[in-house]
């Protein structure tokens, strides 16, 4: 599987696309639940309309199928463990394309899938707007000292607190993909100074300098150029310059536990850490020590190594921590955008055209 966006043309000379179904569509499409316990009937109808003649196979979250999977050529993957996925791959010798309904694809880039050179696409762009709005809510809550004000309310104490204007803040964004750029758009509109870190600095710093909008995404009208874009080797430099650090990076071997004791020591004593990416980006023990010792201002965490977060987790008890239950992505529109993106790629598959959001297995996103 190459990191380029491959054309799916050529596997079946009698049809435009590589599928063995009518007109190049997949003969069968496997679908596992996304964002809910069951796939909605209207979503199945949209999939059938995008791939007329394809057979739909419903999968449970455990990977159990309601029909044969030997002719499955495409998979819409939602809730499915790596083990269940690998079992499906072994039983579906014709599977050639997997669309992940999440942006993170670490559970789809398994050794089995890599060996088969299965093309993987993801949901880049689908969740960018609600996640960015969640981040902005947290930035405003931190800068206007909302947690302290709520505590004063509970104590029935009238004590005005001084806030900070966003134009006085430097926001450091670790991971400048579709989510990072959406955060920059909203924070920049408030006048905040934005510095960003991304793996490929050479893409430039201007508006839209990333890989481009994903299908189904709502583009932001305002996308300021960050004051600076740095590479991974300048992580500590970014941490030292930021008042608020936003983690929006994918989980890869390089980013696993990137926020460790040394990274936290590089942050400003008043700075806050916001994580809307993956819990494994952070060394939990190091973060808990830094928070308890007041070495950083606080943390707003939407994602954790263990989810649901156990009730006895010390994160719940710290006064300088905001815990949200992996809800930053939540919006009434994300499921519609997810299906829209998959259906658009289904039509491209049938025509033998390049798919949206093809994942580079070497980079992990």
What features would you describe in this structure?
- The protein is 28% helix and 13% strand.
- It has 365 residues and is α/β, with parallel strands linked by helices.
- The two termini are 13 Å apart.
- It has helices spanning 41-50, 82-91, 111-116, 128-143, 146-154, 178-189, 235-241, 261-266, 284-292, 334-351, and strands at residues 28-31, 55-58, 72-77, 97-100, 119-121, 170-174, 193-197, 228-230, 244-247, 272-275, 298-301, 321-323.
- It has two domains: 22-126 and 332-351, 3-Layer(aba) Sandwich (Rossmann fold), CATH 3.40.50.720; 128-323, Rossmann fold (3-Layer(aba) Sandwich), CATH 3.40.50.720.
State the main characteristics.
single chain; 365 residues; alpha/beta; Rossmann fold; 2 domains; 7-stranded parallel beta sheet; 5-stranded parallel beta sheet; elongated
Strand and helix layout:
Blueprint: E1 28-31, H1 41-50, E2 55-58, E3 72-77, H2 82-91, E4 97-100, H3 111-116, E5 119-121, H4 128-143, H5 146-154, E6 170-174, H6 178-189, E7 193-197, E8 228-230, H7 235-241, E9 244-247, H8 261-266, E10 272-275, H9 284-292, E11 298-301, E12 321-323, H10 334-351
Parallel strand pairs: 1-2, 1-3, 3-4, 4-5, 6-7, 6-9, 7-8, 9-10, 10-11, 11-12
């Amino acid at each position: 599987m190459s990191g380029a966006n491959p054309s799916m043309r050529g596997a079946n000379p009698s049809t435009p696309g590589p599928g063995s179904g009518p007109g190049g569509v997949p003969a069968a499409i496997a679908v596992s639940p996304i964002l809910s316990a069951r796939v909605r009937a209207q979503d199945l109808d949209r999939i059938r309309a995008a791939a007329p003649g394809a057979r739909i196979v419903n999968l449970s979250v455990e990977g159990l199928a309601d029909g044969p999977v030997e002719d499955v050529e495409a998979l819409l993957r939602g809730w499915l463990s790596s083990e269940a996925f690998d079992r499906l791959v072994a039983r579906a010798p014709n599977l050639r394309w997997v669309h992940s309904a999440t942006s993170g694809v670490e559970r789809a880039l398994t050794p089995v899938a890599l060996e088969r050179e299965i093309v993987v696409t993801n949901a880049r762009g689908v969740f960018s707007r609600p996640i960015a709005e969640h981040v902005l809510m947290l930035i405003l809550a931190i800068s206007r000292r909302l947690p302290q004000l709520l505590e004063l309310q509970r104590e029935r104490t009238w004590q005005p607190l001084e806030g900070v204007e966003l134009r006085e803040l430097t926001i450091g964004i670790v991971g400048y993909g579709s989510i990072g750029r959406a955060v920059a758009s909203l924070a920049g509109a408030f006048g905040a100074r934005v510095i960003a870190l991304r793996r490929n600095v050479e893409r430039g710093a201007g508006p839209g300098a990333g890989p481009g909008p994903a299908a189904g995404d709502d583009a932001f009208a305002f996308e300021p150029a960050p004051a600076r874009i740095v590479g991974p080797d300048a992580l500590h430099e970014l941490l030292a310059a930021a008042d608020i650090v936003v983690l929006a990076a994918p989980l890869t071997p390089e980013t696993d536990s990137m926020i460790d004791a040394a990274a936290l020591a590089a942050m400003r004593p008043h700075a806050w850490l916001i994580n809307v990416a993956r819990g494994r980006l952070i060394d939990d023990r190091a973060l808990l020590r830094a928070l308890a010792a007041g070495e950083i201002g606080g943390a707003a965490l939407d994602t954790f190594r263990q989810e649901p977060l156990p009730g006895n987790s010390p994160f719940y008890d710290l006064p300088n921590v905001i815990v949200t239950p992996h809800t930053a992505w939540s919006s009434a529109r994300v499921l519609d955008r997810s299906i829209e993106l998959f259906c658009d790629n289904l039509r491209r598959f049938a025509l033998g055209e390049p798919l949206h959001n093809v994942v580079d297995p070497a980079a992990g996103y």
